[in-house]
Amino acid sequence: MPPIETPSISRRCLVAAGAASAAATASPLAATAASNADAPVLAKVSFEINGKPQTLELDTRTTLLDALREHLKLTGTKKGCDHGQCGACTVIVEGRRINSCLSLAVMHEGDRVTTIEGLGAPDRLHPMQAAFVKHDGYQCGYCTPGQICSAVAVLDEIKAGIPSHVSADLTASPEVSGEELRERMSGNICRCGAYSNIVEAITEVAGRTA
Ligand code: FES
Ligand code: FES
Q1: According to the CATH classification, is domain 41-119 in 3.30.70.920?
Q2: Alpha-carbon torsion 47, 51, 54, 60, what sign?
């Protein structure tokens, strides 16, 4: 019987060759899986922005704020904290104010969204915009679009009888008082400190529309 030939390969070489072969086959798969996991998932969303129907195809992680600013170029709505803490991104959705940085755009299929551009324009200001100008309700203006959208919705909330944290009687119609307005506007931060003028502006509009 002929002698059995021992292959001239060491254990170390064998392990190395095995690892290389595994890498050659497994790596492309792993890389593909990783890149698939990272690939954005796109979805279509159709909504009405400032009275105009719009359809966008978006990464499902896109916030309403980024959809407005980056995809529709409606840069009136501002990004302050991007964390729901400053109110600069406030817009009105189906009549209610929301922080657009905290809401995914694809959640708003069919919704009516109003931004500062939809409230008025320089040649036809919304009464709230005109009151902010009249009462110097801003300095740098960065928080102002959010303040104005919030203020418009606040007056609607009061009109609808929705109580706030400082409403003494939850069953009575809330009043447009300085205390009520300060509480209801407390989610809109103004780094320039234009708060007292903002309250004056809202009070004036409430008087006009009450
Ligand atoms: S940017 Fe949305 S709350 Fe600050
Ligand atoms: S006007 Fe400057 S942050 Fe409010």
Answers
A1: no
A2: negative
